[in-house]
Design goal:
It is built from one helix and eight strands; from the N terminus they run H-E-E-E-E-E-E-E-E. It has a four-stranded mixed beta sheet, with no helix packed on it. The protein has a four-stranded antiparallel beta sheet with strand order 2-3-8-7, with no helix packed on it. A hairpin with a 2-residue loop joins strand 4 and strand 5. By secondary structure, the protein is mainly beta.
Length: 143
């Protein structure tokens, strides 16, 4: 058996035990990436081991809220756990979305433990050219 040495593993384990798993009133934070891809904004959340039916996505005004719950795997009475490092409990993330995003057309996909939200950018927020009109000449203002 190969063991990897991590000097902070024990410290991380103790911190997790002290803080405990996330609850609905005090969830743990889930890692995410956010970036623009063409005419849409993409937000990807890492939540491996969470079934799709345990994920809630809500938008209220411009506040996007994602909550997920990872429950322990059912074990037999004769099962003895030697090591348990995967965090359990509730995970959550809230993001304030810009007014330039179309929250009515958000698409959500969940594959391989990654929840990906694609939020279209509104037409009014897309870059556009403004033409310059040529006036009929100079006008003097009488003073």
């Amino acid at each position: 058996m190969l063991m990897r040495t991590d000097p902070f593993r024990e410290l991380d384990r103790m911190a997790q035990q002290l803080m405990g798993p996330g609850t609905w009133s005090k969830p743990s934070v889930m890692p995410m990436d956010a970036y623009r891809e063409g005419d849409q904004y993409v937000v990807a959340f890492d939540i491996p081991g969470v079934p799709a039916d345990a994920i809630d996505i809500d938008v209220e005004r411009n506040m996007l809220t994602v909550k997920a719950e990872r429950r322990p795997v059912a074990k037999d009475d004769d099962t003895k756990v030697d090591l348990s490092e995967r965090p359990l409990g509730v995970f959550s993330r809230q993001i304030v979305l810009a007014d330039t995003l179309d929250t009515e057309r958000i698409q959500a996909d969940y594959e391989a433990g990654v929840l990906t939200l694609r939020i279209p950018i509104t037409e009014r927020a897309k870059p556009r050219k403004i033409s310059i009109g040529v006036g009929s000449g100079r006008q003097e203002i009488p003073g």
